[in-house]
Description:
Layout: E1 9-14, H1 18-31, E2 36-41, H2 77-86, H3 98-115, E3 118-121, E4 125-132, E5 135-140, E6 143-147, E7 149-152, E8 171-172, H4 178-181, E9 192-196, H5 200-212, E10 217-221, H6 244-254, H7 260-273, H8 278-284, H9 290-298, H10 300-312, H11 317-322, H12 326-344, H13 349-360, E11 364-367, E12 372-375, E13 380-383, E14 388-391, E15 393-396, H14 404-407, H15 412-419, E16 439-442, E17 446-453, H16 468-486
Parallel strand pairs: 1-2, 1-7, 2-3, 7-17, 8-15, 9-10, 9-15, 10-11
Antiparallel strand pairs: 4-5, 5-6, 12-13, 13-14, 16-17
Helix pairs in contact: 1-3, 1-16, 9-13
Amino acid sequence: MKGGNDVEKKVAIIGLGVSGLSVLREYICAQEHEDLEIIVFDEENLGTGLPYQKDDKSLLLNQTSATMSMDPINPLGFVDWLDETLEIQDASGHHIPRTIYGQYLRDYLNKLIQKGNITFVPKKVSDLTIIGENEYKVSCKNDSYKVNAIHLCTGHFPYKDPYGLKGKTEYIHQPYPVESRLFPLLGKDVNRLAIVGTGLTALDIMLYVSKTNKDIQIHFISLDGAFTSVRGNIVFSKLHYLNKENISNYIDSYGDFIPLNQYIEWLMLEGESNGIDVREIWQNLGGGTPKGIEMDFRFLNELGIFQGIIHQLDDILPLIWDSLTNDDRNTFLRMYGGKWHKFRSPMPQKTAKKILELCADESIILHKNIQSINYIGNSFEINLPTEQLHVEYIVNATGPETDVEKAKLQDPFLFSLLNKRIVEKQMYGGIEVEWPSQSVYSSKYGVLNTLKAHGQLVGGIQYGNNSMGMLSRSAVMAVEHAFKFIKEEETNGIKNI
Length: 497
Ligand SMILES: Cc1cc2nc3c(=O)[nH]c(=O)nc-3n(C[C@H](O)[C@H](O)[C@H](O)COP(=O)(O)OP(=O)(O)OC[C@H]3O[C@@H](n4cnc5c(N)ncnc54)[C@H](O)[C@@H]3O)c2cc1C
């Protein structure tokens, strides 16, 4: 018998994408000295989740290999794996196909399976019930399981359907995996395709379609008519102003809130100390139109320094977001949110070059200010301010919902969690949790220290940061915290049971 407790404790991990895998890694470590049963629920894409499932190699990671390690001790874990397993050398700065990253994740999962003792339930969870202090019932088709802690790692919410086209034969609502979802477009006599959206999903679709069916003209339809920024030559340098210490000192001296203007000043100073003018970059780069992309290519070093600063904020974004008043948060979203996102999620240079090439021969065309889309039987009519466009197919690249009240309509499990007030809507996206413990806040039961939420579910608390690195690092803290309660070192004090 390991550990001091007589009774074996059980934990449930619901969903096994990058979030679930990171949580699993932490519990497998804990299993070395504690009696613990780990039950994992997922019915598809074990270990990879949605983005890294088996798919076409044209879909690339939007980050370089050096930032994609699953191993908290070895930040170059993925780079080493590429070298050892696939003999791809010096891949630190490369954007590798996501399907290869999926292979790395599956390999990582297999190593965990060999190390620990895991029960896999290949089913979707449909409900959970709170039975008592650190006691839950997890239900799925024909079965239920009693556990002492739960990690909700259910990942991406269902896709938005902003133009109400779901169900139309020529409308591809959710495009992954592109190899099978976009199959209807292959070998068919399709002349015009519209992609709704201009984010990284839209670029995935462009890369795949332009490779497999060269005769299609692709129309990008969006509100702002711009892609993201080009990934510059990223440099990571020490942050002197936007760091934990500075934020804590400010809060100690002036109280719980930090004005948005103070952050803007720190960002400017951070740029200055790295030899760039943040205001100039903000105004002139990251435009995302063909002209904007050309401009980015002329200033890749400056852009890379700025993107490096933004990237390094990953771990303190929740802290920054928490220190802003709602007024300042709304001001940020209104004035800077769109552009911030474009700098935070840049596209690989190779993809940007492809855009310029395809624009030059009008294989792709960008439109803005989309007004409405009508289905007219076998094709679509898209209304733009000065023209009407007709296309035979539409692919939706608007991404997942962020509002749980909308997402729940397509997800019975989320519906039940909200309905029973086990979870609460967070006004900036996802559900309410305590940070960094990631404990769910319930208006019926209070703070649930052994019910943790991860990934997109906590998007409103950590300002939408869903990068692989952030998910992996935050799992360390969440599991460590849950563990204190599982081992009964701390008590929960749940209300109303
Ligand atoms: C297209 C795309 C590309 C991306 N590229 C990058 C990148 O290059 N680099 C980067 O750092 N980040 C990238 N991201 C961010 C990405 O979101 C995260 O890296 C990460 O994959 C999210 O993992 P997750 O486990 O939270 O969610 P998911 O990957 O969505 O996994 C959730 C899992 O939960 C399961 N599940 C859902 N509901 C239930 C249920 N009721 N019961 C049981 N199981 C359930 C699902 O089957 C799924 O396997 C990308 C995101 C997208 C969408």
